[in-house]
Design a protein that fits this description.
Largest sheet: 5 strands, parallel
Radius of gyration: 15 Å
Number of helices: 7
CATH class: Alpha Beta
CATH superfamily: Rhodanese-like domain
Shape: globular
Number of domains: 1
Structural class: alpha/beta
Number of strands: 7
CATH architecture: 3-Layer(aba) Sandwich
Helix content: 25-40%
Length: about 170
């Protein structure tokens, strides 16, 4: 699948949208990625940009991008997961420390020029993961805004106003 997702180009980081499969064979991806790049952080370290959950689903379902879930295995199992997503946890262990093998593990599953959409619970860990991937010379590391469950609401609950599940996008629970 990685071969299908490659942009096949060596464009500089977070600049114009990649060419190749995303540009040629997935023309509908171009406007989404352009909007996402406009939402890219202006501070350093940066990353390619931010996609909404609906935009992420459109890109993934059209095979223009790969979705990487950076939550823990327990979160995926007990809260829910997106079918066919790749799992590489950003935090590991009981103390939830940064996974020192994160980039290396991901490199075994995707290529550096693939369009990679990163998902966590609320959109915070996925930003850190996107920054780390960009620093590791991944060209198209995007954060999925709102995450799987969204931020806490006034009742300290998630999923009531934002997130992948809130938008009723495909997911399963073990």
């Amino acid at each position: 699948m990685s071969e299908l997702l490659s942009s096949r180009n060596s464009a500089p980081l977070a600049v114009p949208p990649p060419t190749g499969l995303v540009g040629g064979e997935f023309p509908a991806a171009q406007p989404i990625l352009a909007r996402a790049r406009e939402r890219a952080p202006t501070s350093k370290p940066g990353y390619a940009g931010n996609v909404t959950p609906r935009e992420a689903w459109e890109l993934v379902s059209s095979h223009a991008a790969v979705l990487v879930d950076v939550r823990t295995a327990e979160e995926r199992q007990f809260v829910g997961r997106i079918p066919e997503s790749i799992h590489v946890p950003w935090l590991i262990g009981l103390a939830l420390q940064r996974n020192p093998r994160f980039v290396r593990e991901l490199e075994t599953k995707v290529r550096r020029d693939d369009v990679v959409l990163l998902l966590c619970r609320s959109g915070a860990r996925s930003v850190a993961a996107a920054q780390a991937l960009t620093e590791a010379r991944f060209r198209n590391a995007f954060n999925i805004l709102e995450g799987f469950e969204g931020e806490l609401d006034d009742l300290n609950q998630r999923g009531n106003h934002a997130g992948w599940r809130f938008h009723r996008l495909p997911w399963v629970q073990d």
